[in-house]
């Protein structure tokens, strides 16, 4: 049997990781400034993370959600404390797409409506409703296209108002910093007005924090830079540091009923052990404060790089925009300098999404390599 060939692959085979480094099957060390799509939050193979999972799997790896799982309650309590969203309720699942799918489902259940507003250059997942709400027709199959989704320009509040006042929109789903789209964001006035309009029109505001959440922007969630109160907050990626886990936080005004949502693997014992380790390390190592310091350092030093047109993003969700497409630049960084970086829908943007444990010397290594490529001696 062969693998279904849907991924273009770099010719690298990582077999081991340690903090911000990965090592391939030939023993070559790579500086990981992409974190596997922003998944690695507390560093590869963090000792606390490893021990939590080892100890849990030796006791009980899995049982269904038909029984009590105290680890779920511990995770919820620690998440509420660290995120500042302790009044919300937690539903656990397995991925970002599943989180957003459940968020949209709850919005439709509660409002009794079915149309969704999304934004140009958005990415919300590859499942049924989430891929329909993603601005990439290439990955939307006919069965997905049955969903009712309206795409608007990010920042166009008049269009949002017009669409909401039609009365059939169950949810506005919004990345407060667009990830795959290219780190675009708009004004506080826009985000706050969207929140106000949603509340006036019986429409849920869903904050998609799958990539921006879990401290990556310096706030626990990206929306916390603004005066907004989402009805649902979706999260995944950095939540498990590589172990598959996702979730949604639901506003306390949303009433649950048995069978409303469900999942086999969501919130399993191993996933919770991983998630608890991430929260403990983030708190014990003050990683959100560290993110802010490193972000300022990166932005200051990146201004010295020739050819950088714009520095985009917040925290350690960053992008360098050039006047040229960056595919070849990424290849040089990987093969010649052994540094992982990321791409975006914006082909001129180099995305930087390192583990939150990255240090100044790692940023210096990257910027020195970038200078060497862009301004060879």
Automatic annotation (TrEMBL):
Any one GO molecular-function label of the UniProt entry: pyridoxal phosphate binding
Reported cofactor(s): pyridoxal 5'-phosphate
Domain of life per record: Bacteria
Gene3D superfamilies assigned: Aspartate Aminotransferase, domain 1 (3.90.1150.10), Type I PLP-dependent aspartate aminotransferase-like (Major domain) (3.40.640.10)
PROSITE patterns on file: AA_TRANSFER_CLASS_3 (PS00600)
A Pfam family this chain is assigned to: Aminotran_3
InterPro entries associated with the record: Aminotrans_3 (IPR005814), Aminotrans_3_PPA_site (IPR049704), Class-III_PLP-dep_AT (IPR050103), PyrdxlP-dep_Trfase (IPR015424), PyrdxlP-dep_Trfase_major (IPR015421), PyrdxlP-dep_Trfase_small (IPR015422)
Family affiliation: Belongs to the class-III pyridoxal-phosphate-dependent aminotransferase family.
Descriptive protein name: Acetylornithine aminotransferase
């Amino acid at each position: 049997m062969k693998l279904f060939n849907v991924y273009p692959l770099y010719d690298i085979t990582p077999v081991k990781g340690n903090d911000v480094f990965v090592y391939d099957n030939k023993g070559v060390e790579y500086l990981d400034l992409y974190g596997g799509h922003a998944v690695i939050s507390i560093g590869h193979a963090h000792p606390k993370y490893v021990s939590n999972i080892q100890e849990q799997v030796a006791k009980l790896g899995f049982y269904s959600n038909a029984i009590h799982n105290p680890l779920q309650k511990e995770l919820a309590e620690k998440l509420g404390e660290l995120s500042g969203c302790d009044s919300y309720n937690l539903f656990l699942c397995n991925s970002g797409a599943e989180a957003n799918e459940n968020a949209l489902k709850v919005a439709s259940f509660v409002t009794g409506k079915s149309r969704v507003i999304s934004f140009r250059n958005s990415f919300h997942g590859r499942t049924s409703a989430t891929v329909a709400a993603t601005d990439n027709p290439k990955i939307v199959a006919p069965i997905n296209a049955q969903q009712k989704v309206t795409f608007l320009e990010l920042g166009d509040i008049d269009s949002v108002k017009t669409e909401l006042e039609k009365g059939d929109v169950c949810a506005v789903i919004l990345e407060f910093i667009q990830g795959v789209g290219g780190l675009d964001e708009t004004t506080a006035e826009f985000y706050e007005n969207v929140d106000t309009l949603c509340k006036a029109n019986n429409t849920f505001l869903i904050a998609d924090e799958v990539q921006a959440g879990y401290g990556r922007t310096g706030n626990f969630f990206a929306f916390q830079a603004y005066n907004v109160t989402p009805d649902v907050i979706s999260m995944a990626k950095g939540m498990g540091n590589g172990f598959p886990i996702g979730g949604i936080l639901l506003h306390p005004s949303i009433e649950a009923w048995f069978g409303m949502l469900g999942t086999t693997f969501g919130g399993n014992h191993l996933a919770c052990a991983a998630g608890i380790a991430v929260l403990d390390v983030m708190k014990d190592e003050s990683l959100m404060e560290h993110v802010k310091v490193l972000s300022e350092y990166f932005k200051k030093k990146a201004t010295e790089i020739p050819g950088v047109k714009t520095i985009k993003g917040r925290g350690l969700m960053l992008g360098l925009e050039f006047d040229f497409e960056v595919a070849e630049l990424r290849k040089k960084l990987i093969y010649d300098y052994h540094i992982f970086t990321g791409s975006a829908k914006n082909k001129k943007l180099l995305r930087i999404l390192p583990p939150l444990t990255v240090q100044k010397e790692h940023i210096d290594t990257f910027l020195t390599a970038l200078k060497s490529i862009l301004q060879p001696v």
